[in-house]
TrEMBL record:
One of its GO terms (biological process) is fatty acid beta-oxidation. It comes from the Bacteria. Pathway: Lipid metabolism; butanoate metabolism. Residues 79-257 form the 3-hydroxyacyl-CoA dehydrogenase NAD binding domain. One of its GO terms (molecular function) is 3-hydroxybutyryl-CoA dehydrogenase activity. Residues 10-61, 260-356 form the 3-hydroxyacyl-CoA dehydrogenase C-terminal domain. Belongs to the 3-hydroxyacyl-CoA dehydrogenase family. This is 3-hydroxyacyl-CoA dehydrogenase family protein. Pfam families: 3HCDH (PF00725), 3HCDH_N (PF02737). Keywords: Oxidoreductase.
């Protein structure tokens, strides 16, 4: 039996989340609209935190806030390169090709390249079956694709988006190579959700052309892209990437090169707080999940979401946020650490906070 009502449970978790969002805005890190869009399109929330904070009287927008103008292409983008052949890379390749861009994608082997084509063919076939595209549109999309096992094939692309292992040494080696291979003025973008983009720019001779373009998985379905600029990224590159996102029918949000960007920086402390509330003994995880869904309209409760994301992934992000910001509120919950140490990682191991073995 809980000590708290559903409303109290929700407030215990949502108020810190709203305060983190307000601090993010006050620091000038991102606009209120981008913070809201990040959580709406990245997490499926019915309202963004700045809107909720305004409704609760915690935030008052500045008077006469101007509507943002549509971004324009400051640099020409006709041909797109993608490095990687995993699920994220394959989804991005499909999205770019469906928008009419010629896409050159690079993988380690012909089998990997064939896997990308198979993935996209299967996805497009499902769209044909549902009547959302025609057979001609499917053929046209596939006709935009060119695979290669050689990075040199990226020599004439206008932008390269990489989606390889989240390892700074591996990414840095790739960026040195892309700097050598890609034509002058080509944009070098990364889908990283955790690596410092500034460091990737520093290994090139063109840090002004390096930018984050963090798609959310699956890229064919989720609409959000976090466009992450470093201090060196040029304004023309940033606006061009925002325009490209609009062209491929994505919702882009702008932010700086800081741990967690917008979405992870707001989402994971909230999830961590849920574990700490469980530890307090004031509510069970079932009660917490039910209260959040009922009171906020979030698509999942925090424990169901932790298990879906993976407790190991969640812990790694929370540790990074704690190390970056030094905020005691971000210190990983002991129970989350224990779950990972026990190998209870969530759905992928059939056991996390909940048991999925049945």
């Amino acid at each position: 039996m809980t000590d708290l009502t559903n409303e109290q449970i929700a407030d215990t978790l949502i108020l810190p989340y709203l305060n983190h969002a307000i601090r993010m805005f006050d620091a000038g890190y991102a606009s209120a609209v981008d913070i809201d869009n990040g959580m709406i399109y990245g997490c499926g929330y019915p309202k963004g935190p700045m809107t909720v904070a305004q409704e609760r009287g915690l935030f008052t927008p500045a008077e006469g806030s101007a509507e943002a103008t549509a971004p324009e292409f400051k640099l020409e983008i006709n041909k797109v390169g993608v490095v990687g052949t995993g699920t994220m890379a394959s989804g991005m390749i499909q999205v770019f090709a469906q928008a009419g861009y010629d896409v050159v994608f690079v993988g380690r082997s012909q089998d990997k390249l064939d896997g990308v084509i198979s993935f996209i063919d299967k996805g497009l076939s499902k769209l044909v079956e549902k009547g959302r595209i025609t057979e001609d549109a499917k053929s046209d999309t596939l006709g935009h694709l060119t695979g290669s096992t050689e990075r040199e094939a990226l020599g004439d692309v206008d932008i390269v988006v990489e989606a390889i292992a989240e390892d700074l040494a591996i990414k840095s080696e790739l960026y040195k190579d892309l700097d050598r291979i890609c034509k002058p003025g080509a944009i070098l973008a990364t889908t990283t959700s955790s690596m410092p983009i500034t460091k990737l720019g520093e290994v090139t001779s063109r840090p002004e052309s390096v930018i984050g373009m963090h798609f959310f998985n699956p890229a064919t379905i989720l609409k959000l892209v976090e466009v992450v600029t470093t201090d060196a990224t040029s304004a023309d590159v940033a606006e061009t990437v925002l325009a490209l996102c609009a062209n491929i029918k994505k919702v882009a949000v702008s932010c700086g090169d800081r741990s967690g960007f917008i979405v992870n920086c707001l989402l994971f402390p909230y999830l961590n707080d849920a574990v700490k509330l469980l530890e307090s003994g004031q509510a069970t995880m079932e009660e917490i999940d039910a209260a959040i869904k009922e009171q906020t309209g979030f698509p999942m409760g925090p424990f169901a979401l932790l298990d879906l994301v993976g407790n190991d992934v969640s812990l790694a992000i929370e540790k990074e946020l704690f190390e970056t910001f030094g905020d005691a509120a971000f210190e990983p919950a002991a129970t989350l650490v224990a779950k990972v140490e026990a190998g209870d990682l969530g759905r992928k191991t059939k056991k996390g906070f909940y048991d999925y073995s049945a």
